[in-house]
Amino acid sequence: MAKYGIPYMGSKDKIAEVICKFIPKDENFYDLFGGGCAITHCMSLFKNKFKYLHYNELEKTTVDFIKDIISGKYNKDTFKPEFIDREMFFKNKDKCAYTRIIWSFGNNQTCYMFGKDIEQEKKSLHNAVVFEKFDDTAIKILGYNAFKPGLSIYQKRLLIKQSFKKYQLQYLLQQLTRIERLEQLEQLSRLEKMQRDQKVQNKIEFTSKSYNEVKIKPNSIIYCDPPYIGTAAYLSEFNHDKFYEWALSNKYPVFISEYKMPKEFEIALSITKNTGLSGTGSTKTHAEKLFVNEPAKKLLHQLGRKTFPNIH
Predict the structure, then answer these.
(1) Cα-based distances in Å from 156 to 83, 127, 167, 289
(2) Which three-class secondary structure state does DSSP give residue 221?
(3) What's the CA gap between 226 and 136, in Å, rounded?
(4) What is the DSSP letter of 208?
(5) Nearest CA among 71, 81, 55 for reference residue 194
(6) What average pLDDT does the chain have?
(7) Which structural domains are found in the chain, ordered by start?
(8) CB-count burial class (<10 Å; 0-12, 13-18, 19+) for 48
């Protein structure tokens, strides 16, 4: 189970601790491309490193979603999620971040989560687990028409997996594998963790602006996770050259996650990641880097840390 933030395409969840440990302490921390909130969430758990945290994300519905999570709107004891079908997804995704993120394929915020051939099975199992409504499809798949009283949604999900093993002769194994997991409910468990971790945290400020419109206070460290060049498209276009100019001219230390950047930025940290390749048993290794502007470079040198030339 992922630890930080919400399910989000391009999330820094797996390397959040490395990044947050590396970034020097100060009074204010600005996460200007907050996205799924993995970095801000992780940084909030580093006691006494920053007095104030600032999460910024251009897409306002995403900011509102994060705030709703922290306020407890999606608490597992009270939130009973309606199944979002294909029609509802495309109708509501542009105005509802919960729909757009949790119910999209790979959390890419554009494509619906399930293929048409398995959507009905997923809906039947979802309604059985969340609302204990067993239709003919759910009964045929599971082999029973009710759960024992008092089971949580989490316990029902586990029971379904056991039921699949018991009744797997009723379906082809391939079909079972595709409908066994209730991904959307598993992702809600992450929202619950984030809400629980932030319950006693009152130092996060939220804004929904362009990165260059956020007013930076003195004694601040800036972290940026902008859209990567040559990777999957985000909800809006991004001007990388304009961002480079802004970062290079900024008087505050700026730390930037990217694979590659112009030579004017130096490399402060390189993190090797293994990415699974779809449809194969192999993995692809790549290095994700943390680039710095001149003020960040000077700060690191003052702390006795090295930076390295960015050679193309």
Answers:
(1) 16, 11, 16, 41
(2) strand
(3) 47
(4) -
(5) 71
(6) 85
(7) 13-58+209-302 (3.40.50.150), 86-192 (no CATH)
(8) exposed
Biggest alpha carbon–alpha carbon distance for the chain? 68
Residue 5, pLDDT above cutoff 80 = yes
Q: CA 247, 251, 256, 262 torsion: positive or negative? A: positive
Question: What distance in Å separates the CA atoms of residue 152 and residue 238, rounded to the nearest whole number?
Answer: 43
Contact 6, 66 (CB under 8 A): yes
Token pair of 227, please? Answer: 């859209």
Contacts of 224 (CB under 8 A, 6+ apart): 32, 33, 211, 243, 247, 254, 255, 256, 257
| Position 115 pLDDT exceeds 80 | yes
Q: How many CB atoms lie within 10 A of CB 195?
A: 18
* Digit-coded pLDDT (tens) for 48-96: 899 999 999 999 999 999 998 888 888 877 888 899 999 999 999 999 9
Q: Are the C-beta atoms of 291 and 267 separated by less than 8 Å?
A: yes
Q: Over range 278-293, report the average pLDDT.
A: 73
Looking at residue 11, its amino acid is: S
Per cent of the chain over pLDDT 70 is 85
Token couple for 78: 């009270």
Task: Tell me which residue of 235, 236, 189, 231 sits closest to 7, measured CA to CA.
Answer: 189
Strand pairing class (283-292; 266-276): antiparallel
Which residues partner with 17 through β-bridges?
none
In contact, 223 and 29? CB cutoff 8 Å: yes
Average pLDDT over residues 129-139: 91
What DSSP string describes 253-278?
-EEEEES---TTSEEEEEEEEEEEPT
